[in-house]
Amino acid sequence: MKTKIKSLFLAVIALVAFSGNGQEKTPAFKGVVKQDVRESTADWTPFVRKKAPEGAPNILFILYDDTGLAAWSPYGGRINMPTMDKLAADGLTYTQWHTVALCSPTRSCINTGRNHNLNGMGSITEGANGFPGYSCQLPPQAATMAQILNDNGWSTFWLGKDHNVPETDLSAGANKSQWPLQQGYDRFYGFIGGETNQFYPDLTEDNHAIEQPYGPEKGYHLSKDLADQAIKMISDQKSANPSKPWFMWFCPGANHAPHQAPADYIAKYKGKFDDGYDAYRKWVLPRMIEKGILPKDTKLTNFNPMPADQAAPGDFVRPWDKLTPDEKKLFSRLCEVYAAFSEYTDVQIGRIIDHLKATGQYENTIIMYASDNGASGEGSPSGSVNENKFFNGYPDDLVENMKLIDELGGPNTYEHYPTGWAAALSTPFKMFKRYSNYAGGTECPLTITWPKGIKARGEVRNQYHHAVDIVPTILEIVGVEMPKVYKGVEQYPLSGVSMKYTFDATPDTPTQKHIQYYTMLGTRAIWQDGWKAVAVHAPLTDKGKFDQDKWELYHVDVDRSESVDLAKKNPDKLEALKKVYDEEAKKNNAYPLDDRTATQILTVERPKEEAEKDSYTYYPHTSSVPEAVAVNVRGKSYKIIANVEIKDANASGVIFAHGSRFGGHSLFIKDHKLYYVYNFLGITEQQLVSSEPVKVGKFTVGMEFIKEKAGEHNESIGTAKLYVNEKEVASGSMKAQVGKFTLVGDGLCVGYDSGDPVSKLYSSPGEFEGGEIAFVTVSTGKEKYSDLEMEAARALKKE
Question: What is the predicted pLDDT for the residue at 11?
């Protein structure tokens, strides 16, 4: 017995000695363990968790999407940001803070303090590839700031957008090692993906999918919901653990497409952008100079600076004076909605700030307010009322778009403004999001407010910094170090430097940062001590031949807009910087460069937990299945078969649905009839309706689409048929999408339709009532519909 007790004692010592999360080992157990607890001595020391230092600050990092330097009022822009204005007046406004030019990679830098390629995040998660810098899987050598803060006594919360989970890991049964709760966050509420409908979001709470609490008819908007949840999380924590500080990463869907906002906020901007994007640039530049954001001699750059042999047609800016009156009206309205979306979200953030003030937390909360990349040029030269058309290679039609002009920003549109506004809102720089070589893609707003820790009020800071500098800044402020070994894994050193010195600096105190490389989608640049070398290359063009790229040289300390190329005057400097780029690229896993088209990158073969097959079976009342792992019917013939028992003559509701009103298909019962609707890109609802009523009993119901050819824009054209048992009850011609129904959200459902309904003939969730659904099978194989129907019918008889 003594031997067993001794073994137990040694095991406890071993467990506590090696269970430390970081570099520090947990203190050894110094109590006494005997057979009887009455003869034993407890020692709590190894089991007491580390506490944050007394008086440690809270941290609130607010991160918008797709916003250039010239958009917001604190920087001289036309978009009113009342909350950010107040925070800027109560703190510091940074004029040279940079990002990685794309959302997932920038967010990984803020999350870990390492360069995006070291994080494996060389692209958005949908563009993952099998290289160390592009796997889109955060490696164990890059512990997150949340993990370190959590280990040191902070509560950690993440709200809103998480675009750092591999696309194949989005489903309910997928590996969740890359999800927020496994990355050091106590709570998560938001969407796991690049974008979502603001009125019908794809919501996740902690580790599971949920439906939104109420609909837009009752005033729902995601920005409001996120603010409600943020206040609740803070209140819950302070009610139970009032002495404990917290870290919150608040990432609204704004200003990423779809641009959607309440009508009263859209109305506030009516006519505010009628002068056009050319005029906006000339209007905003003097205001930015007056505010101290830019030097007085800063020059405007050209709208279309890329040479003809490199320019991407989809990124072209159409001259405003060449547009038709209807185009000007539409383009202006699209920017009004964008502005309203931004301001409305800022007002919701203001509610969080008001809560902090009302509860006495504001003074000792570090509040950082930023965006993750420049304005988005993904709306094409003419904009769109349904961004999904762009991803399906299907052109917008001005006549059709003008019909929706009064609905822009509401639930019936999924819009994106044209490239002209992306360039204008990134004034005075060249290009926009995705272009890491120019400041239009990387130079973004950042304000820092901390009343207790920053004496300056309403001042600017011109020091050059980057997203990788956020983690070192916060860790220095709170007195915590990033461990050299975390959970047994030697860590990558932090890529950034702390910005804390700027709190007590003057506006033009020299920066303590000395080098930063940039790489994204084939674009690249290197900044070192005020000089920048730029490779002239456009993203997503599939031009390759990187060794033939022309390089430009800018002295950005004196030429902020990168308007004067000094390559010919200073060739030695340029060559030296090109060598530094190569060194940094190799050190940070930035090779290979990849400028292939979006279609080529998105269709890279990636490992999946489930092997692809011809037939998939789904069951009712499960969480929606994300499109990334659902059956793929795009560009194919396919069949949908469901076993259904109708118990009530008035049975109705959705049997199967996938997608939304902006693209999707649905099988449902309404008014005693079986319906199949294919909503083609929100343009038209193609309907098949059974010729006979559906009666009480057990049935196999379904449909079949037979692809016959490809249309002008590669859409699938063919014939659709509707069945009840083996009988054909309706048929007609149909066209189907070749691209995704949605980038994220509105997944495949059985027994209901999550989020935004596919058809106007029912409202979400459109739950099936008056009967039971056994299963739904979707097949893209070569089997005849009749063979699949017979197999399903046999299963029905066994029940």
Answer: 42
DSSP H/E element including 159:
strand 155-162
C-alpha 625/C-alpha 443 separation (Å) is 37
Share of the chain above pLDDT 70, in %: 97
Identify the pLDDT of residue 671: 96
Query: Which DSSP symbol is given to 203?
Result: E
Beta bridge partners of 657: 666, 749
Could you give phi then psi for residue 785, rounded to 5 degrees?
-60, -40
Q: 242 preceded by cis ω (within 30°)?
A: no
Distant-in-sequence, close-in-space partners of 637: CB < 8 Å, separation ≥ 6 = 704, 705, 706, 707, 718, 780
Strands 523-528 and 531-535: antiparallel
Question: pTM (2 decimals)?
Answer: 0.93
- Residues 268, 88: Cα–Cα separation, whole Å: 23
Burial 678-706 (b: 16+ CB within 10 A, else e): bbbbbbebbbbbbeeebeeebbbbbbbbe
Q: Mean pLDDT over residues 204-219, rounded? A: 94
Distance CA 746, CA 660 (A): 6
Tell me, letter by letter, the H, E, C secondary structure of 57-106: CEEEEEEECCCCCCCEHHHCCCECCHHHHHHHHCCEEEEEEECCCCHHHH
Burial class (CB in 10 A: 0-12, 13-18, 19+), 378: buried
Task: Write out the H or E segment, with its range, that includes residue 797.
Answer: helix 785-798
Give pLDDT tens digits for 98-111.
Answer: 999 999 999 999 99
pLDDT confidence band for 395 (50 / 70 / 90)? confident
Peptide bond into 304 cis (omega under 30): no
For the beta carbon of residue 503, count every other beta carbon within 10 angstroms: 17
**CB-based contact 755:706 (threshold 8 Å):** no
Name every residue whose Cβ is closer than 8 Å to that of residue 632 and which is 6 or more positions away in sequence.
612, 780
Contact between 188 and 149 (Cβ < 8 Å)? no
Q: How far apart are CA 467 and CA 462, in angstroms?
A: 15
Residue 16, pLDDT above cutoff 60:
no
Q: Rounded to an integer, what distance in angstroms lies between the CA atom of residue 273 and that of residue 331?
A: 9
Strands 653-660 and 663-670: antiparallel
Q: 654: which 2 tokens?
A: 């959705």
Query: Is the pLDDT reported for residue 583 higher than 80?
Result: yes
* pLDDT at residue 24, rounded to an integer: 65
Map residue 708 onto helix, strand or coil: strand
